[in-house]
Amino acid sequence: MPPKKKPKTKEEIKEQKRIAERLRYQRLKNDPVKREQLKEKERRNYQRKKEKGSPSPQSSVSPSILPMTTPRSNASNARKRNARKKRDKIIKYKDKKIEYYRKKSEKYRKRLERLEKAKTKENVDTPNTKLTKMCDSPETRREVVKKALFGEVLNAQLKENYTNLKTCKEKQIFGKVVSGKLIHKYKLWRSKDSFISYKTIQKSARQSVLVPKLRTRKDKISSDCINTVRTFYENDDNSRLGAGKRECLTRKGVKKQKRYLSDSIANLYKKFQAEHFKISYTTFCRLRPFWVVTPNVNERDTCLCIKHANIDLKLSSLHRRRILTYNSHTALLEKTCCNRYDELCLSRTCQRCIDKNPDYREFDDSKPIEFKKWISEKQTYNDPKTKNARTVIKYVKKTFTVRPRQLIEELHEDLEAYYQHERNITHQYNAIKKYKQNLTDEDAIIHMDFSENYCSKYSQEIQAFHFGGSRLQLSLHTVVVYTKNSIKSYCTVSKNLTHSPAAIWAHLRPIFKTLPPNIKSIHFVSDGPVTQYRNKTMFYILASRLQQEVSNVKKFTWNYSESGHGKGAPDGVGATCKRTADAVVATGGDIDSLESFVDAIQRRCSAITLFTIDDKAIQELTDDLQNETVNLKSFNGTLKIHQVKAEILRSPLESAPCAAKLIMKSLSCTCEDDCQHFNLGVLEYKNKSKLNVDDIYTDSESENMDNSQDSTMEIDDDAALAGPSSINQQNYTIGDYVLVKFLVRKTEYCYAAVINKIDTEEGELTVTFLKICDDKGHTFRVDENDVSDVSFDQVLKKLPNPDIALKGKRIFYYFNTPVPVFEK
């Protein structure tokens, strides 16, 4: 077996490599071609590094360029190595010496500590030594008896306390208290009367602390699993956030807004397993956050605004697809407006936020998106009594599937109306607030609303009454009157369930009698349904009958809240009345008549004044108004009215009022003088039976301020009794297209319209106007908010049926022949 070769050292290996490198360069130098190539390569490398500003280090230069080592440099390196070895030896020697003296110092320090401890130690006698010394002397007998008595008492008390302990944890703590080194030293458990057992001592010895720690579960759930489940529950796909200010829960000092589950926990558990990992159903239920609750049918929102609801539904769909980062209209306003309560921002005239739009993320337009929307649609059903088909309009929430881009375009089409809606809400709230803050001794605010009808109830009911139609219903009209020094609540109750203008006035008449006699200005506040407070009959009642009820009144305003946002103090009055009546029934009473309802409220709610309204009074007022309002015409643009402002004009020769001029405004104005802000038009009444002005629709912003006289046009009695037009009334049918004329300031305007309703008795047509969309008079679109009643005299001609074209989501009507319209 050949001998093993001695392994080479590092220096030998390096030297061998250096020799090989020199031989390689020698071969290159001997070959002229390769030598020229090497030089050219080195020149290029040097030039490239020189351009970069980093010349090549010497290590990168070829060995032929580097200087050759000399014997002098070798000797210098040897001296350096020897000096380094010498320093290392000195350092090691000093380290050993430092360690030796450190140990010696520690030895003497401990020795000193023990000597000081032994010197200062006091000789403390043990319990056994103490008793032995006491027993040696007869004089200490009394002390021995006391010690023995103390031990017996303490033993008996501890035994009694131990028997009263109930839990294992308490017994463990007790055993730890009464055990220790002294007990173990003298072995007191061997005593006959001792309650301490050896088992107790052994258990206590194993405990290192007084209160033992609870054992932790080996299968403890990880924090990642807990966070994943909680995030799943809080996802908008699985739960929705409550919007109410009282929809919150607090536990252990943590306050959270409620979230309502969008599906059952069983279905959500299946969805979680499909998307994440598998856990037990019990663990999934246990990890549900306390603020994520199951929704209750009684806690759902039932009075939402349709505009806000549709905007929220679209935003939620875009948020679920991660196209938007928010899912509510409030967040939209905060993102696109400087101040969501500033009217300049909401009207999109603020220069800082006029160009702000929702920030959309990138999305895939090829994947369809679903969204829900509240819409009104016609539904036909068969009447079981008459066996005839009837068509009704109902609101339903439907699901649509579109491309994301189409949904974004539809959202942008709705934003203009939505911003205007928000501006109206803010303006009306601010105007009513300003009225309340600036009340004088001669001013009063009457805030009113109809409450939901109350049904009679008994504490015990038979089945036929409970499920039958035997319940009595009561109509509740609630009012809150604000004066400078007081706020009073009223509730008028009637068996008549109509909410017509005549019924409203009958409910208000007792309220007028309670007003102070010095009231000269009244501000009415209500919501704006056209069947109750905002219609031509109510305008006529205000102009002709208010001065009869409040003799000193000189001016008044009627302020309408924005559609869907009319909640206020009267709703609280109605809720209090009905809740009080239900409490009477719950405690064994009966609310079976109007009188019992009024008596129950008056006894328990002294702050609410109740009045009963006779059914005959409402019927008589209804008959009178029906005769007086035969020839009344609707105001063109009634749905846009948010304030009716009026000043009652009195005759200089008579004490009775002779006229009232009603100024229609698109928003409430708090100016004291007769201003032109938000003007829509003027109605002037000169007697109780006839309207002496044609309905006028004016735009105050485009009028010349120099010609700001009242745009009224008087109609004499002969004109009011003019017969029907020459066009045969029987030629019209619902759905026909007609050309209608309006005379404003001696200028005749022509509009295209479609007939919605025909009233042959009053000689009127209810029409919806069409708005022109081109310059030639061919293309029109329907303005759904522009509805009015016109007489047959105003119809110029019947138009041919147009062709219907659908562009995007809008419907356009195309007439083959130009329509000669002249719009304002």
Automatic annotation (TrEMBL):
Claim: Coiled coil is one of the keywords in the record: yes
Transmembrane segments: none
Sequence ranges of Basic and acidic residues compositional bias: 20-45
Compositionally biased tracts (Low complexity): 54-64
Key words, A-Z: Coiled coil
Keyword Transcription (UniProt): no
Top-level taxon: Eukaryota
Coiled-coil stretches: 98-125
Family annotation (PANTHER family): UBIQUITIN-LIKE PROTEASE FAMILY PROFILE DOMAIN-CONTAINING PROTEIN, ULP_PROTEASE DOMAIN-CONTAINING PROTEIN
Protein known as: (African queen) hypothetical protein
Gene source species: Danaus chrysippus
